[in-house]
Amino acid sequence: MATDLPSYQSEVLSLTHVANDYYELKVKIPAGLHWQSGQYIRLGLPTKAVTDQKKVRALSPAAPEEAGYLQLATRTRQTPSSFKTQLLELQPGEAVTIYGPLGNFTLPTLDHPLVMFASGVGITPLRALIQDALSQKTTTPIELIFTAHDYHLYQADFEAWAAQHANFHLHIVKNRQAAQAALLATTQHYGNTADYFLSGSETVVDAVQTFLTTTGAINADQIHRDVLYGY
Fold first, then answer.
1. Rounded to 10 degrees, what is the CA torsion of 58, 225, 122, 107?
2. Cα separation of 145 and 200, whole Å?
3. Considering the entire predicted model, what is its pTM?
4. Average pLDDT over residues 4-27
5. Residue 54: what pLDDT?
């Protein structure tokens, strides 16, 4: 439970409507909070009347701690939950509660290739991992396969990084067939020399893991999962 986790009081820096139903929330890093890229936090809205059964929600920072703020992103879809409705009413300076950090979806030793797959807003922890790895001036190959039907969050950032770093390769796809083709190409090129990071809904992550282990012949222990359960 969130109440069993370390908790920190903080405040909103900004809330930005990025595109379509995607929003980015920046929060001040409270004193004492530290996390590794790829971990997640739980966010509470103490000034809001959230009517959902779950009063806090898990969100993965989209940037390393060194960015100087908690960079969070979400999407509302057609019928926002009470939590999301209240989140979209946050104003700069308004109080929020941070619980955590949690999770072990973190960077391995950067001495072998990384293949990263994201679906939709599942890109957030992968953005942090990639930015962290590139900031360490690693030369290990990093492949990002990013699928979304409508809008690819942070696409401009990834394109800029790909232009700046010869070892970072971006694959923007919009459907399952293109995603599987890109995945198959990476498995044929890297095989089990790479670590594979998957982030998205449980259905998508399960399907991609099955594809990797069967069609791609990737060992299960080379696959790292971060499942978004929705809110």
1. 90
2. 12
3. 0.95
4. 95
5. 86
For 82-117, the DSSP string reads: HHHHHHTT--TT-EEEEEEEE-------SSS-EEEE
Length of the chain: 231
**3 state DSSP class of 49:** coil
**Contact between residue 167 and residue 140 where contact means Cβ atoms under 8 Å apart:** yes
Give the C-alpha separation, 179 to 186, whole Å. Answer: 11
Q: What is the mean pLDDT of the chain?
A: 95
Provide CB contacts within 8 A for 96, sequence distance 6+: 9, 10, 11, 12, 27, 43, 44, 45, 46, 90
Q: Where do we find the tokens 């990002």?
A: 144
DSSP string of 164-205, one letter each residue: H-TTEEEEEE-SHHHHHHHHHHHHHHHGGGSEEEEEEEHHHH
